[in-house]
Design a protein that fits this description.
It is built from 17 helices and 21 strands. The protein is elongated, with a radius of gyration of 30 Å.
Amino acid sequence: MENQEEREVTEIQFWKETPYAGQIRIEIISSKFIKFLESKGYRKLVKKNNFQLVKVKHSSVISPVEVFQMRDEIRKHFQELDREDVWEEFLQADFLSKRITEGIESISIDFDCGDEKTAYFFYQNGVLKVTKNTIGIITYEDYDGFVWEDQIIPREFMPTNSQNAEFRRFCIDLSRNNPERLLSLQSIIGYTLHGYKDPSLTKAIVLMDEVIDIDAIVSEGGTGKSLLTEGVGKMIPCLRKNGKNLSTDSRFFFADVEPHHQVMVFDDVKADFQFESLYSMITGELPIEKKYKNPVIIGFKEVPKVIITSNYLVRGTGGNSEERRKVEFEVSPYYRQEETVVEKFGHRFFDDWTMAEWYKFDNFMIACTQVFLNKGIIEPDPINITRNRLMAETHPSFVSFMQEALENPGSYEGEESATYIKFNKANLFRKFRRTHPDCHQATAIRFKKWMDKYADINDIEIEHMKSNSLTYVKFKK
């Protein structure tokens, strides 16, 4: 009876040997060779009108492969069998041509990790299933789904208390030591970590400085926004784009997006960054064109979520179309004004951590995910966003002037009642020009538009009217 090793060789042999003219003729049998490749886990991952060669391991772990990698495995196989003669015959023809690879079994996979109530994280010691109130490890063989190999976190998960995790303390500092803002930040982190994409919740996360100098040519930064996104990248695959060198109108801009990327970080974008250039990516499909390859379209479920970090205001077209596509979190200036991360913790994050600290980090990030699963995105109360946006869209001097006028209308020849505050528009404009002669761009027409903008951003009802050849503006309370 043949032993186990002999049975395996018999099962996977894809060539036949025939005596011929005193020698042995070796012939590769294409159909058996395809079965051999399939026995090694090779499959065609079907993507609309095309396919990608992949390898499946442990029933659920998938990695993209190139033909040269398949050839390497075949070479090693022959070396183990000590069959250089068959390897030589294999090299005489192109047995890994498209004709052969197209014959490999096709698979179609939904990589949508989790659902509204469940998230999955992929560690070396198994798949971590996370629900609103529970966590648990299952094996990759028992996982009812698929994962890209590059999504596997290069460490094991170990349950532990995360209350004193350094990354948690870091997030507390970013949140002004405010429990409500910390909970909001945790929900935002959890949203980015959750592999499931809900069509009814399509938000870009905008991390911006709480303190912004509107007139500054170069903003300071250094508040920890990028470090926060690095933390996200330690849990899930992120593609980072340098915000200072963006060219979103390039046809190859998204060429480096790979199937395993779950988040795309636009890091440190400039003041002129056009948020509307990402609208379709945030809410729909993503066309990708790589050089010398046919364009492909990534479906909504596989399009990476978006994080934007900036030392400036991130602006789009304005209105509801912009607001419903983003959540803004203002980061405290603690690490710019007080002490750096190294000064506070005595070492660098990530590179200098012990395994114990990594375990605490993982558990804190899982806790963030559970905050999101329980509460959704908790949008933070604005600190300076409203005022900063108003100053950027009008003029800092005008914002201060208008705020003072509405707080003390009598000092500005205004009329105040229980329901409104009314000003003579011409008088108000002249007072502004007299008290702010440096604001050269202020014309009567622009001043009216600024008042409309002020009312709109502050959600104040405004009315322009005429009476006895005089023009007035009324702000309703």
